[in-house]
């Protein structure tokens, strides 16, 4: 394998050998049917509740010593602009510009440029439906990172994901001048997280790119688990987070922002183990405020 590609997204670092920095723990805000959103197309929302959620993630990231990010999801160009205008000044954490429609992602990219937050923005994401207009815009406005969705339904093996990156995404990335993307290995259903784990390992070994997945996407369809209740769902989410991170996962999407405390605690616990080994066995200098130290100061954590 070649060298790992390490990307700087604002104050966060993603990629590199396991444990050299914490994984990027990501939660969604303004998602479909989010209770704080009044009108998803106009971008109208409860600002008081949104601010409380953002403050909570800011606090958790610092207190736990885990790198966290916000996945800003929108249904229209107007909404993504309003959301970014609100979120941008209230956090220094990385922001994913995320939408199903290309026009919305493009509006988000332009808004990020206007707001001066490109250096901590992630374009999420390039996919099989990416339009030429998106690539042209990315050539003009360069975010800190570009995410690619490397999920080949016809070949969901680690080799299939790697070939998709090589044959489909590399020409696209070359066109916009991106040397290393963040690779999202799409999660189809609960058992396929096992495939994601192998895909993460394969992508990191072959390309050295930061890689991970939104393992949370599959949990709503796990009906038997959901019948047990939220506590049990969260335990299974925690297991997925730790398993993906142990495979080298750099991008760890835990789902809705309301689960941020659970995700921060679980991720920080695991990072104590990975960080200590990276420091003691591999000689890595861990960043200030790393979970290895913060997890022994938890008397100050309040919810």
What CATH architecture do you see? Alpha-Beta Barrel
Question: Helicity range of the residues?
Answer: 40-55%
Total beta strands: 12
Rg: 18 Å
Q: Class in CATH? A: Alpha Beta
Major sheet: size, sense and barrel closure? 8 strands, parallel, barrel
- How many structural domains are formed by the residues? 1
CATH superfamily: Dihydropteroate synthase-like
Could you give the order of strands across the largest sheet? Answer: 3-6-7-8-9-10-11-12
The rounded distance between the terminal residues' Cα atoms is 43 Å
What's the order of the H and E elements? EEEEEHEHEHEHEHEHEHHEHH
- Mean pLDDT equals 95
User: How many helix segments?
Assistant: 10
According to CATH, the fold-level topology is TIM Barrel
- Characterize the overall form: globular
Strand content: 15-25%
């Amino acid at each position: 394998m070649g060298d790992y590609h390490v990307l700087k997204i604002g104050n966060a670092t993603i990629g590199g050998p396991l444990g050299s920095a914490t994984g990027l723990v990501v939660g969604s805000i303004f998602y479909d049917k989010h209770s704080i959103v009044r009108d998803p197309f106009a971008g109208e929302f409860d600002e008081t509740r949104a601010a409380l959620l953002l403050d909570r993630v800011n606090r958790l990231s610092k207190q736990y010593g885990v790198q966290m990010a916000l996945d800003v999801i929108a249904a229209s160009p107007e909404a993504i602009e309003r959301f970014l205008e609100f979120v941008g000044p209230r956090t220094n954490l990385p922001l994913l510009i995320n939408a199903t429609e290309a026009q919305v992602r493009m509006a988000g990219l332009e808004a990020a440029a206007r707001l001066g937050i490109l250096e901590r923005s992630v374009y999420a994401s390039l996919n099989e439906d990416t339009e030429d207009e998106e690539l042209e815009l990315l050539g003009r406005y360069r975010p800190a990172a570009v995410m690619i969705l490397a999920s080949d339904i016809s070949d969901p093996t680690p080799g299939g994901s790697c070939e998709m990156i090589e044959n489909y995404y590399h020409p696209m990335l070359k066109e916009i001048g991106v040397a290393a993307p963040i690779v999202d290995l799409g999660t189809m259903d609960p058992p396929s997280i096992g495939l994601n784990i192998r895909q993460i390992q394969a992508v990191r070994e072959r390309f050295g790119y930061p890689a991970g997945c939104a393992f949370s996407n599959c949990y709503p369809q796990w009906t038997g688990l959901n019948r047990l209740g939220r506590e049990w769902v969260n335990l299974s989410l925690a297991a997925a987070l730790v398993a993906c991170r142990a495979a080298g996962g750099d991008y760890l999407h835990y789902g809705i922002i309301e689960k941020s405390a659970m995700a921060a605690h679980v991720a920080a616990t695991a990072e104590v183990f990975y960080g200590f080994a990276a420091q003691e066995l591999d000689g890595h200098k861990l960043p200030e405020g790393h979970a290895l130290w913060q997890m022994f100061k938890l008397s100050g954590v309040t919810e």
